[in-house]
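Chapter summary example.
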Amino acid sequence: MAGDNTARTVSDLFRWGPRRGDPEGAVPPPEPGADETRVLPSKVLSKFLAALAHQVSPVLVDLGPVVGSNITFFGERLSCKIFVEDVCAEIERHACRGAAADLPAFLETRFSGRDATADGILCWDVFDYLDRRAAQALASRLARMVKPGGSVLGFFGTADVERHHFTKYEIVDDSRLRHRPYPATGGHRHVLLNRDIIRMFEGLEVSEQVLLQINVREILFRKP
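The structure predicted for these 224 residues follows.
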């Protein structure tokens, strides 16, 4: 793993053939509080996919761990180039070293030299594990990395709970995600107010926003 002053990139670049049609399937009721793999609804993922579908061979950046089925899904659906950047692994590495205070400075340079290179960015719930300074550093960098007309999708928790895991999000279809917890140092979720989230992503506009019953706010940003 690279040191703190070097941007670590786990890049999986795939290109596939024609895009397939939209999958179908009923959305099961959510199961809040379950500490196990579960399938839960997403109201904004379909909007993110639709925004990327208008781009020719879009470039997608995924801030979560590598999930093979997601790479296949995006490749088949969008014929896109995918860069997987496991920011959660870097958060965990800093926590294990007792260096969480160094995260803001690290994230300020994490994507240096990549301004206006991404058509879409998947943040998942990364911001739940960052304090305010680190969250601002990452949001500012992502706002610069996304291209004009590009989109950023993020999930933001609304309940202050203790968590001892990260979550892999596996796409089931346009409106459902499979949540797979895996161990992490954990700690209290950093809950951000809606106005603070919007301010952090200066230069982007809120395209869609939904508050789910599972205490998660889904926000889709767009760069004018």
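To summarize the output: The radius of gyration is 16 Å.
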